[in-house]
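[09:14] KT: can someone run the structure on this one? pasting the chain below
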Amino acid sequence: MNYQTKSVAGFSLEFAAMNPNGFFFYSVYSVAGSVDPFLGTGSVHANDLLFALHAFAMSAVQLTQIWMYDRGKQGNVNLYVVGFLAVINCCALTSYIYEVSGHPIQNLHWDTFLVMGYCKAAITFVKYVPQVYLNYKRQSTVGWSLANVLLDLTGGTLSLAQMWIDAACLGQSLFGGEAFNIVKFILSIMSIIFDTIFLIQHYVLYGDARKKHEKEEQMR
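[09:31] RB: done, structure tokens below
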């Protein structure tokens, strides 16, 4: 959609800036969990690994698009988001330094891969908010791909279902069992919550703006 319209006016720059960083962390987390099943990540399937790597690649493409196409009324990436990413990356770097130095903080498990997973969860918790706000400020979801929302919602729902099914097959409860991947769980829940908000914005709150845009497109 960004390519077709040559515009990212409806695509949050902050979302685009945070996404690749988060999926880089999740890719490292998933690769580590698939190599070492005793790392503490929980179950990491082939689809989890493919999802993380694919999402990192595609979000990197989206990041380049915000520098290539018209931004509409959006300026530069919010400095608070830049500061947030700086803090998150410092946390990951600090965990790595403590781990390789051989002096872990007492009573804390400073495993770099696990910390990267938690960093991804933190980014996911934050990254959707700027897009929700942009839609609110514009009173429109035009330029924000509905297909992306529907696929994300479906993926989040199926990821959650997969963990439930795995736990049931193992005869365990979801939480704390071998099938429980806390980062995957958080990503699924956040996707379901925010994608539901996007659907409400698209079909209910700003439906008139969408219909007006569709009519204008048909008249061209």
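[09:33] KT: thanks! The chain has a mean pLDDT of 88.
[09:34] RB: yep, looked fine to me
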